[in-house]
Amino acid sequence: MGLLDSVLKVFVGDKSKKDIKEIQPIVDKILKFEPGLEQLNFNELRYKTTEFRERIAAGKAGTLSNIASLKETAENEEDIDRREEIYNEIDQLQEVAYLQGEEILNELMPEAFAVMKETAKRFFYNKEIRVAASARDRELSATTDYVQLDGDQAVWSNSWDAAGKPITWDMIHYDVQLIGGATMHSGKIAEMQTGEGKTLVATLPVYLNALTGNGVHVVTVNDYLAKRDGAWIGPLFEFHGLTIDCIDYHKPNSEERRQAYLADITYGTNNEFGFDYLRDNMAHAPKDLVQRKHNYAIIDETDSVLIDDARTPLIISGPVPQGDRQEFDVLKAPVANIVEVQRKELVQTLAQAKKLIAEGDTKEGGKQLLRVFRGLPKNKALIKFLSEEGIKTLLQKTENFYMQDNNREMPKVDEALYFVIDEKNNQVELSDKGIEFLSGEDEPDFFVMPEVGMEISRIENAGLSKEEEAEKKEELFREFSVKSERIHTLNQLLKAYTLFEKDTEYIVDAQEKKVPNGNGGFRIESEMIVKIVDEQTGRAMDGRRYSDGLHQAIEAKENLKIQDATQTFATITLQNYFRMYKKLSGMTGTAVTEAGEFWEIYKLDVVEIPTNRPITRDDRQDLVYKTKREKYGAVIEEVTKLKEAGRPVLIGTTSVDISELLSRTLQRAGIEHNVLNAKQHKREADIVAEAGNPGQITIATNMAGRGTDIKLSDQVKAAGGLAIIGTERHDSRRVDRQLRGRAGRQGDPGSSQFYVSLEDNLMRLFGSERMAKTMDRLGMKEGEVIQHSMISKSIERAQTKVEENAFGVRKRLLEYDDVMNAQREVIYKRRHNALFGDRLAVDIANMIYDISENITDVNKSAQDFKNFEFELIRYFSMSSPISEEEFSAKDDKSITDIVYRAAYDHYKEKMQLTAAEVFPVIKNVMENDDRNYERIAVPFTDGIKTLNVATNLQEAYDSEGRSLVTDFEKNITLAIIDEAWKTHLRKMDELKQSVQLAVHEQKDPLLIYKFEAFELFKVMIDKVNKDVIGFMFKGDLPSRDAAAISEARQRQTEKTSTQKEEVLNSDEQAAQARAVGAGASQQQQRAQVTETITRDQPKIGRNDKVVIKNVMTGETKETKFKSALPLINKGEWVLEKKA
């Protein structure tokens, strides 16, 4: 604790103590209920749950009754404005019902918690529990082995299988766990030390909140924990008649997964919850939806989910046309060559720098040293040299000199380099020398971007014909696009070769996939792929890819198959996904260091829960060595001593590479051990189960094995408990605390010791100049070790710097996604209304009003009555309801209202007319067709596009075509929204890249992004409105022949993939930014992929005869296509068919 914290505690008080003091009265109430509950028999204890549910239902009954009544009124209300008011009332009442439920839950909390604790006691003390068999008991007896039927009784066993592990219930809630439960129910994060039973604590708020029937989601970091925890504590909930399921057992979009969400309690991984939300917002029928409203979520290992995973947005993507056209393979060899050339030259430069410094020429020697540092920062010889006395200080002084006056002198250092590496910001920049080297003598401009402005001016002044000028400009834009893509590919390859190391940032691992065997079946093939390693947990993260071509660059570097480029269909950050829940809470062992971020982003307070027994673990000051070699030697020596003492040892590492290095060293020393890293994650449970055995050595990357306790025998406790050895300080204090926390659970003895060297990444990149001077002053020689609290505090300050930078990256990501989220909410709400249809009429009325307002505003300001008339015909297929004199005399608002009323009335008439026109066709199919369809596909066309509308034949017949019209409204709205949203997402991706260039103009890219995104969205919404309404006014059956009606087939699912995209920091994004023109040019080249709307008319020549139809009068006439085009473009006529 710092001095400032100590002073604040004196005046303000200890927050942790205050938090516990507030919750203690609730714990006292819980304990008062215990004696009474102990007197109940098993059936009476179970009945408590029914009693609680009845109290909740009674408390909300009045409000829910009002909601049901208003829904019925809304369905029968003809006035669209009044209907919208009713829907707003319903939304407000639903919020009231939720608050009423929360109020009752707070009243029930002490007694409900006591019931759950008493249930845990009954299962602890009784091998069998006999109760009167309920219907739910009978269902469970058929699917589980822990419930058996004996006549009218159900016999519950206290032993069952928890995801493959047999367990006998052996836990009862401690008082401190009651504090944790109350904390989580109130929507806060409970920080509980490792081994304090977070899984058991969760039973309390989960049980209480599940009583409402609105659903509780328990979110875990991996599917093993989701399945294990659900199976482990599930029987306690099921004993009380609650339903529980885990989404990770079921396929996406399946009926089984839908049922899992309908359970009272649903377990699952954070990724799957998020992806299901995105999939639901791509669904085309209500039955395809799996999630219901987001009520309450408890997040296990909150810091992993809401901090570590928050930097990676969830993305559902699909193929881009020509997405396989990439230059990674072509450019790989030149990049590998330039990296090797620079490495060889800088090795010689380093030798020269050493010589000059040894001779006393620190000015030139420092310059050469800085050059090596900027061109080859991860070189082992350089890292070793920097650990020598005074060298790190010299480098920092030299760097400060060349960085002064806004890096004015730095080009003198960089002039000999082919590229410059900024390791802190994960950035690589190609120099002029590098561009020249790669371009070669044959094509000196191969990587040089054309000056678009100057080139356009030159073309326009060249006196060319219009056609030649247009061709030259198109050629220029094409060159600009190709070169921008080429330079981007080159930069990503450079980054892959210089900054991303195999077995540190990623691993290459086998993945099985199904491929057709040619006989109608499938065979399993193995394919090597790149998997990103989570820097926090050390786990390989399946499905996650680096963004913007970096992943493809690494695939090229490793000689693997380069995956095709994709485009985004749906995306959301985990921050915005979890902020949708009405109530959110969490539990973890390490949250206090990120308490500020939890509050700022999620409004989640962190409460430190006291331990059940005092912690006796011995946390020692860091041991600091000069080199990694000395450090690892000391680690092996200490491990040998601890093994001889009979103590188990957990060695924490920061990468797969280091864990395997230590493993090889232990093998050479003949010491048996287990390794748990991204390559061994499938053996995680087995390795952790053995980690507490006497003399057992386990090497694990950071938080690998998190979520499972290392349990110790009495023999191990007597020997001194579990010994934690950290081989390097992590960038985050939280991760180090997590590693320490693996020892000392429930008062067990143990120790923790971190070994640090000056060559470690954290020390190299963020160790201060002051620390380097201190080391020099202490006269640290090779082989010596320093252990002092001052050094440990300096290391923690360096970690704080990294944490602040990481928070900045996550916050920036969220700020960009907040812009998207505002748009996402509008679009997804419209999709939902179109999907269910209940509020679609209100949306259509609002679209008509918006178009009316837009037409009026634009033409009134220009005083253009003729265009006003034309646009009314084009979009509403109606003549103007006002004269030219009224148009000039009336104000905008009055004209808008008149146009809206006339257009809406016309729309209702059009829908009635459509129903009347289609009914004879429906009747003919129903009464005379032998095909016996249940659902039919009816084609509608606006003369350009054709849409097949799926509808229930019997309902369409019974309603005389009205249900078909409703389905027509739903289908056209969904189809147009989806296509527009996909295109918009692509534009937003391109915008996000292009605005980063604003940094060079001293402007804030985020601010420009917000303005431009708003304009893009406004244009998209206007286009959606006009396309939807235009199609609805012009939509008609292309043929009255019953043969045109076909059976509605199951909609073919579009091929998509889910991924978590590794987001880079703002500096990296700026470096990767491509010019706006490149994106625009590419967009022009991409073919639009339309899923639902198709053209079924044959190709028509200009002189071909066609039949056209007047949209206002219904008149048809035959004419040449070239004569029909002006009429069709005006909107007065639509194309019926080719004559």
Tell me about this structure.
With 1139 residues, the protein is α/β, with parallel strands linked by helices. The chain contains 40 helices and 34 strands. The strands form 9 sheets. Strands 8-9-7-10-19-6-20 form a 7-stranded parallel beta sheet, with helices on both faces. A hairpin with a 2-residue loop joins strand 4 (159-162) and strand 5 (165-168). Helix 36 packs antiparallel against helix 39. The longest helix has 48 residues, at 789-836. The chain is globular and about 100 Å long. The termini are far apart. Residues 1062-1098 have low confidence and may be disordered.
**Major sheet description:** 7 strands, parallel
Helix content: 40-55%
Termini separation = 87 Å
- Total helices: the number is 40
Low-confidence stretches: 1062-1098
Strand content: 15-25%
Q: Return Rg in Å.
A: 34 Å
Number of DSSP strands?
Answer: 34
Major β-sheet strand ordering: 8-9-7-10-19-6-20
**Average pLDDT for all residues:** 82
Structural class: alpha/beta
| Overall 3D form | globular
